[in-house]
Each structure stands twice: as C-alpha cells, then as structure tokens.
Amino acid sequence: MIGAGAVGENVADYATRGGLKVALVEAELVGGECSYWACMPSKALLMSSTALNAARAVGGAREAVTGELDVQAVLNRRDSFTSNWDDSSQAEWVAGAGIDLIRGHATITGVREVTVDGQVLTATHAVAAVTGSTALLPDVPGLRDARPWTSRDATSAKVIPQSLMIVGGGVVAAEMATAYQQLGAKVTLAARSGLLGGQEPFAGEFVRDALTDLGVDLRLGVSPTEVVRTEHDLVETTLSDGTTVITDEILVATGRLPRTDDLGLENVGIEPGDWLHVDDTLLVHGTDWLYGVGDVNHRALLTHQGKYQARAAGEVIAARALGKPLQTEPWGAHVATADHAAVPQVTFTSPEVASVGLTADAAQKQGIDVRVVDYDLAALAGSSLKSDVYKGQARIVVDESRKVLVGATFVGPEVSDLLHAATIAVVGEVPIDRLWHAVPSYPTVSEIWLRLLDAYGRP
Ligand SMILES: Cc1cc2nc3c(=O)[nH]c(=O)nc-3n(C[C@H](O)[C@H](O)[C@H](O)COP(=O)(O)OP(=O)(O)OC[C@H]3O[C@@H](n4cnc5c(N)ncnc54)[C@H](O)[C@@H]3O)c2cc1C
Ligand SMILES: NC(=O)c1ccc[n+]([C@@H]2O[C@H](COP(=O)([O-])OP(=O)(O)OC[C@H]3O[C@@H](n4cnc5c(N)ncnc54)[C@H](O)[C@@H]3O)[C@@H](O)[C@H]2O)c1
C-alpha cells in the first residue's frame, strides 16, 4: 500500500484481516491529511464557535454567556486533536494491526514493484495507490510568489491573522471563512460563482446569508486576476471586477489535484499527474494488480467514503489473491456502489449543510421522474426548542416511478445528525409507504421526516 492516510490504513487493515501480508509506505505522517491538516483540525477550529452560538440561541443559557471565545484555547484544543502533528499513536495502531510500516517516498518502478529509498519491494498480488490529493493553486499572476496559504496552513496556523482573503466558494472556503471570521480575522471571500456549487441552491444561499451576518465580506462572481505580496508583508489581491483587497494572508481553496505526479506511474504506462481511473472494485483500468482508493480516484473526496472504498478494496484484493468468491454485483461486499448513488456529505458551516444522493437538478439530468418536497425546518416543535432563532430548510428528492428517495438535503444548526437516516432511506431504497412507519420521536428535529411525508401526501 502506498499512502497511510485514513484510507490507506483501512485498505491495509482489511487486506491483512483477509489473510494477506501487507507493507504500508508513508512519506509524511501516518493518518494523512484528515488527521493533521483537514477534517479534524478544521472541525476543531469550528466547534467552539458552534457551541457558543448554540448557547447564545437559547434563552436562559444566553444570559449565562458573559465572555467571548477564547481563541488560544481553541487553538490548543485543535493541537490536541492533531496530537501536535505527532503520528506515533497512529504508527502504533498500524503495528498492532500486524501491518509493516515503511517510512519514505514510494515510487512504482514496475508491475507489482515499488521502490522506497532504493529498497525494492515486490508484491505477490497487488499494489494500492492511496496517495490522496493536494491543494490546487490556480494560474493567477503573482499568486505563487505571494506565499499563499493552502488548507494545510489554514488548519495548522498558530496565530489568527487580522485579515484573511479566501479564494474559492467550495467546502474548504465556506468552512474556513466561518471559522476564521469567528476566531477574529476580518475575512473577505472571493468566489467565481455562488457558494457550495453542486449542492441544492438553497444550501449555498443559507450559507451566504449566514456568512454575511457574521461580517464576512463576500465577493461573488469574481476571481483574482493578480496577487502581490507587498514590501510590508501584506497581500494585495486584485479581483476581476477591478477592486483590490489588502489582507495579511491569502488562503487558496480552489479544489484539489491528485498526488500522482511523482508516483512513477509512467513506468507502468499510466499518465502521471492524473486522477486514477478505477472500476467499482477500485482496480485501475487496464491493470490487474494496481488499485486506486480514496481521494486519488476522484470518486468522492471525503474520508468516510474513502474508508468505505477501502473496505471493498482491502477485501477484494485478499479475495482475488486467495481465490475466494467475489461479490461484485451492485451493492456486493467487494464494490463501492454507494459512490454512484448515496455519498453523504456534511459542510460544518453555521448553519450546517448535510446532503446525500442526488440534488433535484442532478436527478432530472439523469432522466429520473423527479418530485421535490421542501419543508421549513424552523416550523417544528423540536427546532423551536433547540434554538430561539432557528433557521433551516429540508428537501427530499423522490423518484416518482419507484416511490423512493434518491436525495435529501438539510440546512440548519446540527442537521449533520439527521443525515444518516436519509442515507439509509436512499441506500435501502425504502418505499415511501414504508417510511410512514418509521416514527420520529417528539419533540425532535427528526420530526422533519413526518412533515416531509405529510407534504408529499398519504399513499
Ligand atoms: C480542509 C479540509 C477539510 C476536510 N474536511 C473533511 C471532513 O470534515 N470530512 C470528510 O469526510 N472529509 C474532509 N476532507 C477530505 C479528506 O481530508 C480527504 O477525503 C481524505 O483525507 C482522503 O484520504 P486519503 O487517505 O485518500 O488521502 P490522504 O489523507 O491525503 O493520505 C494520502 C497519504 O499518502 C501519502 N503519500 C502520497 N504520496 C506518497 C508516496 N509516493 N509515497 C508514500 N506516501 C505517499 C501522503 O503523505 C498521505 O499521508 C477535508 C479536506 C480538506 C482539505
Ligand atoms: N466537511 C467536509 O466534508 C469537507 C470539508 C472540506 C473539504 N472537503 C473535501 O475537500 C475537497 C476540496 O475542497 P475545496 O473547497 O478545495 O474544493 P471544491 O472543489 O469543493 O471547491 C472549489 C471552489 O473554488 C472555486 N474556484 C476554482 N477556481 C477559482 C478561481 N480561480 N477563482 C475563484 N474561485 C475559484 C470553484 O468555483 C469552487 O467553488 C472537496 O471536494 C470536499 O469533498 C470536505
């Protein structure tokens, strides 16, 4: 296995449990991006503000909040979640799982052959490239010389800058604008279109309004045309509408690139620098020995979905090696079918955005006979108890020909915990008629399910 991020660790673990001997090669920290520069530190930077907002939204608790956010305590808590960027406990877990850890940069030097610092390792059965992704820097004049931050800097910063320019309108940009503005930076966010493209349009609109309420200077429909690091160590960003913004730092959050440029793919006839194109068993097209799992295959750039792929990949590698029966029919144990139909994602902005499956637009484009049901999440007993200022929205996307859910989106405080019920409904293709028998407790926000069904109509 090349790459010991969250996904590589799981491929290795499942292949080991399947009966194979596995060597896991890691060039940086065992645990990868998610543990040290992505999911965990970014959420740690957000959660203290989220908790404070929740307390301020409830009378009685609000009166008890007399102080402000303790920024240094937030940073210290973030550091504890990254174990101060020390991976010894993760390395211990790898050893305990019976996996051989090799530290160094791996290069594929031939079919089933990987070289690490001159040491040639030959796999009997398979090699898995689980090398993840890295931040993409757009080709803007002056940007590279301006020492821009990427998500790695934003998640590991020891000091909150007084002002921060964020370029991008995706998940990283929205989450980091939410975090940094509340940690005291004056944030400007420039995105070439709306926020959270690819989600239901109302999700981006809620987050746009919330960021504006927090005081973020939103510049939508613009891109940077030039960036200069000035002699006073400030960053001067010129935008396509001709305006200029001066900030202490600039964070570029404009998407990801696969970490395949220095992997030696050219040695086995595969284009380096490209995403790895794989089938549903995660096997790279045109090979019978190379697997691509996690971010590197570009199917869903999310830790949980990569770990789901890892379970299928680790087990299918072992099954193929040991001649065991394969389960490769859709939804079988050895295929990542959910990547096509039911990818759950939570954006941890305030309000949170939680979605699974298809948006109404995507479902229509797939030719599905779509019926959309919307409901105001604030109009529930559960949400009014949770917050005196609750704002939120829910949507389900129904395939009318099969009478099952193909997508759901929730926007509101703490809606992340509503999502798994929707994921089960989509993956299980639970008929709407049967969903009526899944009774949500009163008075919870889960009562949204009852309201959505009511709005859809009795069978
Ligand atoms: C700011 C941010 C926040 C995020 N938040 C979330 C979140 O809340 N929830 C979520 O689900 N997802 C989140 N993601 C996405 C998530 O981080 C990724 O989907 C996940 O880390 C992918 O895991 P991976 O194992 O495929 O890759 P990685 O974690 O990138 O691991 C790949 C590993 O391979 C190693 N490697 C690469 N090349 C070589 C080589 N040639 N030799 C040896 N080792 C090599 C790297 O050093 C690295 O450790 C976030 C991403 C970002 C940027
Ligand atoms: N909570 C989570 O699950 C979470 C959090 C962060 C990141 N992630 C994952 O990490 C991945 C990367 O996130 P991301 O936000 O970097 O990428 P993204 O692809 O989600 O968004 C990139 C954004 O940058 C904009 N953009 C691109 N070039 C631009 C330019 N030149 N000028 C202005 N805007 C430009 C795009 O229009 C888009 O809005 C995502 O796919 C996501 O799955 C997940």
Account of the 3D structure:
The chain starts with 5 loop residues before the first helix and ends with a helix. 32% of the residues lie in helices and 22% in strands. The protein has a 5-stranded antiparallel β-sheet, with helices on both faces. It folds into 3 domains: 6-31 and 87-134 and 257-321, FAD/NAD(P)-binding domain (3-Layer(bba) Sandwich), CATH 3.50.50; 144-254, 3-Layer(bba) Sandwich (FAD/NAD(P)-binding domain), CATH 3.50.50.60; 351-456, Enolase-like, domain 1 (2-Layer Sandwich), CATH 3.30.390.30. The chain is built from 15 helices and 21 strands. By secondary structure, the protein is α/β, with parallel strands linked by helices. Strand 11 (224-229) and strand 12 form a beta hairpin. The mean pLDDT is 98. The longest helix has 20 residues, at 303-322. Bound molecules: flavin-adenine dinucleotide and nicotinamide-adenine-dinucleotide. Residues 2-8, 25-28, 32-34, 38-39, 42-43, 105-106, 130-132, 151, 155, 172, 259, 263, 294-295, 301-304, 306 line the site of flavin-adenine dinucleotide.
- Total number of strands: 21
Separation of the first and last Cα atoms: 51 Å
SS-based class:
alpha/beta
Number of domains: 3
* CATH homologous superfamily heading of the largest domain: FAD/NAD(P)-binding domain
Number of helices: 15
CATH top level of the largest domain? Alpha Beta
Which runs of at least 5 residues are low in confidence (pLDDT < 50)? none
Strand content: 15-25%
Helix content: 25-40%
What is the CATH topology descriptor of the largest domain?
Answer: FAD/NAD(P)-binding domain
- Rg, rounded, reads 23 Å
Mean pLDDT figure: 98
- What order do the strands of the largest sheet run in, or round the barrel if closed? 17-18-21-20-19
In CATH, the architecture of the largest domain is: 3-Layer(bba) Sandwich
Global outline: globular
- Main sheet properties: 5 strands, antiparallel
What ligands can be seen in this structure?
flavin-adenine dinucleotide, nicotinamide-adenine-dinucleotide
